[in-house]
Amino acid sequence: MNSYPTEMLVQLAPIMFVAGLDLPPTLAAAPVVPSLANKDPSSPPTPPPKVQDPFTLLIFRLREVLLSQSKSAVWSPDRTKVFQVVLVDKAVGFPPRKSVPPDDSSYANAHSPLSPMTPSSPVFPDGLIAPIWIKKHMTYLPSVFVLFLRMYEAPHTTTRSPLGQPDSDMERERAEEERKRDADLSAEIAQRKKSTGERGIKLTVVLIASRRMLDDPSLDGRLSFIRKQSNLDSRAALFVLSPVSPSELNDFVSSLQDALYEPAIDYYTSHSKRVRRKRNRHSQAVSSYNPPAALVGATTPRPLRPEGWTVRYEYKMAAFAEFRGEDEVALKHYQDAYATLMIMFGSTAILPPRTKRWAEAKVLADTINVKITKFYLYNNEHALALSHHNSHMRRFADFSRGWGIGEETFEYWSWMARQYRVLAELLEQGARSTLTLPALTPGPRAAGGLPDALGPGGAPLELDAVRMMGLNPSHALQHPGHYYYMAARCTEARRERFLASEGLTTTPGYANEKKVDHLTLALELYTKAYELFKQHSSTASQGRLTLWIAYRIALTYYHSGKFEMAVRFFERIAKTYRREKWSTLLRPLYTTWYACTQKLGDVELSVKLLVEMIACGDVDEPGSCQEDLSAILKSSVPSFVDDVLTVDLVECEPIWDTLVIFWKSEVYVGEEAVFQFTLIAPTNNDISKLPVESITITFSSDYKPITLRHCASESSGPIRMVPVGMVQPADAAGQPLEVAANLRWRASDRVIVSGTVLSDTPVTLSVSSLVVTLKESGWTIKINHDVRATREGAIIPPYWLSSLNPVQFIPVTRDDRSNVVFRHRPHQLSVSFSHQQEALLDEEFPITVEIANSDDRHVDVVVDILLQPAEVDGAVQYIVHNGHRSSGLIKGAECGIIAPGASVRKTFILVASGAAGNRTIDVSVQSNASSTLPTVHRPTGLSMSSSTSSLAANDTNEFLRTLVIPATAPFSVTHDVEYQVSLCPARPLSELSTLGGDSWDGGEVIVMTKLECMAPCGLEVEGLELKRLESNRAKITRSSNEIDGSTFPAEFLTGDQFCNICCVSLASREYDLTEGDAVPGPGEYIVTWRRIHSLGERGPSSTTRLPLPLLRPPQESLIGFMTIPSAAKLHVPVPMHLVIRNRNATRSAIVTVALDQSTVDGFVVAGPRGGRLPIILPGAEEKVTWNLIPVECGMVRVPHVRVMDYRMAPSTNDDGLSGSVDEGVLVQVIDTRFGTWTGDAGSQGQIGQTDKIFIFP
């Protein structure tokens, strides 16, 4: 930005003049001129030495605080109430408003000294705006003037009269002196008030006084006198300051600026209004300026056109808006000024090219462009900022072509470089402050994909779809390094155009251009771009661009003649380019690097570079690098006589394409592996004159290398076969293999090295390195190659040479053709299992593993057994081997060493219980044929039934087998449950046994259990036992197997059944946990049995536990018991009793009883026909009795009694509230002669009841 006036680029802020803070001469940091301090305000004054005067220290601190408030900077987006402070002398004056003094008769018609209408103005007569106008308002015209003055204080004295009263004369003299000093102070302030008032500048006076003066009662009167005498404003015009601490001083300065900020804004607002009025006048009338009489006879200069006045006034209003901190208003005026400037540049009649005003207008346009771009960036409108800057460059590029300074001139590229650099510096300053550069990472792709973004009929894409397609880099704001790079490229183009026009032009700019050091300027720009790219590089692609910039720096150093610096950069860049195979970029780099080494006279480095250049290929001049290398080797000697120069091409492009093929991918230890190693000369690169002396091929393991020596008498055909025999291990006796071969290549020649290799140990073998040795005139050069690399663009099909005459190849299609794996011969073991077809739950199920050795070696065998988790719920399982029990893995079951032809068996036990289902067992048989074991030589050729494991150092194999054992239940169990209601009356609450909970009058349950044999084989049941379990809710009272114990032992086949009946007593209803809760079975059956094998053998004893079912007794809380005799005599009365029992523990019952009249035909009934019983309390009961006189013989139906419970009749009314209905709930009545309930509590209507009795005559 140094190319433009600083005043036209910096961020404008309100100007505050501060006077009266001059340091004593002995403490002043810099001399102060009558107008301004020469010292840069951006740097604080030098701290004074220690002083005892508090006022001097206060002045120094004030200067420091004020100068640190705001500093002139191009980038300053913060809009706070802070002034640009300028320290001035008390007697500082202001620039004149007009070019003639006020007492001149022509003062009314005169103009500003900087106006285009003033002949002495730098912009007379058609200039637009001068930088001195901005400087005037930044340096010479403040918006507020702060004057610091020392308030007079009489010397402190303690002299009193002899009587102890104050001396009146002394007090009077003191008051007169203070009044005199205050009058002088007021006159000084009034004089300054007059000068500032004429310019509309706010004057504020700060009186410095001691802390003692602040407590003086006369202070208010003195301040009122000073204010009136000096005509100061009533608001923010007079302050008093005493020596305070630094923190309090900062608060004072902040409050002072807050108070004066509004007057400063008013000052610039009044200027804007004045300029707007002038603009409106000029827009309505053409300029009426008449030149002075002294100039009538001369050539009349052309005055400024209306467009120029518009630019001038718009620029002034933009500047005043910027002073006020109104960036949006300033942006609008800058845009209007810029648009009018573009109209002026569009006409050469308004702004003729290559004139002074044309150059000034270009500078003005460039600076306005910077302002507009900066304001856009303040608002984070990156796209608008970049768009305006690009538009500015594009417009002036078009203008320049019309002015005759297009792309073929150095002026054009100089201006382009300047624009890129200004943008880069602006972004760099912003990035160090508050600017956040946009992230250019692409967003996530839409789920519908890009084709779905097209509407029917080829409608335009949506915005998100357009963004997914990509972004033009010139339309995206990037980091400053990019624009520094563009500026550097433009500078290089500028230099090229300058050198091309040297001696062909005599323009005035050519003389200035000759003074420019283009290379230094480009180097500076490239260096800045390089540092910024390194700072912002987050991906590999950006890192490569950083290397490209480093390459441009190296080229600049080369053109500058700094060859050593260029070589340093080339060395660092080439490392990455080699590793990432950027051959296209390496070729020009090598060319320039080689030119640098020639200038430096480094022969060894030149030889290395030539070898690498030969590897990359001579695209432009085939064979030139080979000739240069031959010339250097013949005309020079190495620095050390016996030294070997090594050139590493492992990461570079290879000179020869190589191909390694092993005929087999795997061979057994002790067998030979056949290989062919092919070297292919490039088709488009001449290497026929390379002085190849030998080629050394090295394998990956410890093997002796193969060396091919050059012999011109050997075959030189396009395809040469070089047999080398067997490659020997490194510890074998004898010399390494050396074979003679013709090592001169024409284009596409092939040399095929064929041989065999043998290994006694397992190993993966491949060719690890290739070293080519060149010898010429004392030079020995060793070139290291990567045997897996191929030249760029080369496709080498993997062919195996099967015949040399005629030449025939066999294609090899497998991927692992470049290496061979030596493995141990697999062990010949057979693994088999023997067990029953199915396992039964709860039995010990034996499984036998038999391992037979069919190999000719002794093997040490270990077995691992893994029991997989069952896939059914509730399954329990484990395996047992040699007393070790595990629910998962049994590891390392040793089988010992198995001799050839022998076998071994291992038996393990599977126990499955719980749920039936398949049980999965994985068996791993691991064998090891160590060299320490005895070996029996037998013919080989036996096959292995399972795959071997991965290659290990020892001769080990692993055989995997999976067993799936079905596990079924030996018995199926069904339970028939019958509930019998207790007829015993409820015990009264007064009995202790009722509260003790040991009552078992809750009824009885008859459980009949049926067991059916489900095993696929016969079972011998040795015993059946019903084991009682502790329970406070149910207990077993008797069981049928306890009565008859002679049933077992017995044999059962599949489908055979046997049963057992038990009786269970239930606890009282009061002790149920919840209504309807199931009662766990109070016992379990223990069945002891054995499996019967096919030969009648019995298996081990097994035990199966079968629990009783859950008991769910009936849950009726209110129940009736009907007691009647089973038989009666005709006309003899018999009683019929009905007992209503409330079994609920918390709820009373409201019960009605009604006798069905339609069922009394066979009896004469004496008793109540219906009615409501008393409320039945919890646990209580009520009894109703009828006398029946039979009048018929035979089976006669007794009268039916209907019992209703009204407390258990819920209903829902229309309003949603619960209520009761008249019907109630029918209560079950049980005949005590039967009193049984079949099924669970949820069943209804299954009460064992009859309503008939037999009547005898």
TrEMBL record:
InterPro entries (UniProt xref): Gryzun, TPC11, TPR-like_helical_dom_sf
Q: Where is the composition biased (Basic and acidic residues)?
A: 169-184
Residues forming coiled coils: none
**Looking at the record's lineage, which domain of life comes first?**
Eukaryota
* Trafficking protein particle complex subunit domain span: 357-499, 512-614
SUPFAM superfamilies according to UniProt: TPR-like
The segment annotated Disordered runs over: 97-119, 158-185
- Where is the Gryzun putative trafficking through Golgi domain positioned along the sequence? 660-871
Alphabetized PANTHER family for the sequence? FOIE GRAS (PTHR14374), TRAFFICKING PROTEIN PARTICLE COMPLEX SUBUNIT 11 (PTHR14374:SF0)
Q: What is this protein called?
A: Trafficking protein particle complex subunit 11
